[in-house]
Amino acid sequence: MARLYTENLSVHYDKTAIIQDLTIEIPDGKITTIIGPNGCGKSTLLKAITRIIKSKSGSIILDGKHISKEDTKALARKMAILPQTPDSASGLSVGELVSYGRFPYQKGFGKLTKKDYDVINWALEVTGTQEFKYRSVDALSGGQRQRVWIAMALAQETEIIFLDEPTTYLDMAHQLEVLELLQKLNTEQQRTIVMVLHDLNQAARFADFIIALKDGKVVKAGSSEEVINHDVLKQVFQIDAEIGRDPRTNKPMCITYNLLQGEFV
């Protein structure tokens, strides 16, 4: 049994069902990506699992316990989340922003300890942002800023990291930079990575496990070979896709596609 899984999870916004009776396991120590059309519930699923929003029914289990009953700081020591649009860090230096990741470990007035500073410096080193420590976050490029936010998540020292579209608004080089960093964290430190991605080829290239959602339900979950194929993409996105192989990774690759005209699957 996986450390983290859901059972018959349903999440509503007002009276609208976004996630419906969803049961899924998140593999330990792997990279999981969630794909699906806009509005299918990808971000909602991440927010529900990390307790940012409440579920209507069902269970989210971490280490044998319902997360709804976990102490907030205890939960923050187990999982970190980088939202799609992180809160503004205007006026903060890089070091100050990364130090916020130590909040779950602080007591009393929250004075940072030597251990806290050691972890902050380690997170900056791992993400290649140590040279920006005293620079304003506002002065960084998009790729640099995203790495700093990841450093803050690393400073939480959690074994599970959730990221909601971490490559949004980044150019191709910076997208690859961020994804390779997450892959390195997974392979070298066995961090469990769960992220939402729109790019199917990036999902296929970097994920060990892919969850394809549509209308708040799992259409298919499995390896890239099991999910990135003609039939699944037709059902999830209503596209007629041509699938080949990435010549560098041998992973499945969506070469081209057409919209399905007048078909409903």
UniProtKB/TrEMBL annotation:
Membrane-topology descriptor: Peripheral membrane protein
Molecular-function GO terms, alphabetical: ATP binding; ATP hydrolysis activity
Compartments in which it is found: Cell membrane
Example GO biological process: iron ion transport
Gene Ontology cellular-component annotations: plasma membrane
Span of domain ABC transporter: 4-240
Source species of the chain: Cerasibacillus terrae
Entry-linked InterPro entries: AAA+_ATPase, ABC_transporter-like_ATP-bd, ABC_transporter-like_CS, P-loop_NTPase, Siderophore_ABC-ATPase
CDD domains assigned to the protein according to its UniProt record, in alphabetical order: ABC_Iron-Siderophores_B12_Hemin
Annotated protein name in UniProt: ABC transporter ATP-binding protein
Alphabetized UniProt keyword annotations: ATP-binding, Cell membrane, Ion transport, Iron, Iron transport, Membrane, Nucleotide-binding, Transport
Range of residues in the leader sequence: none
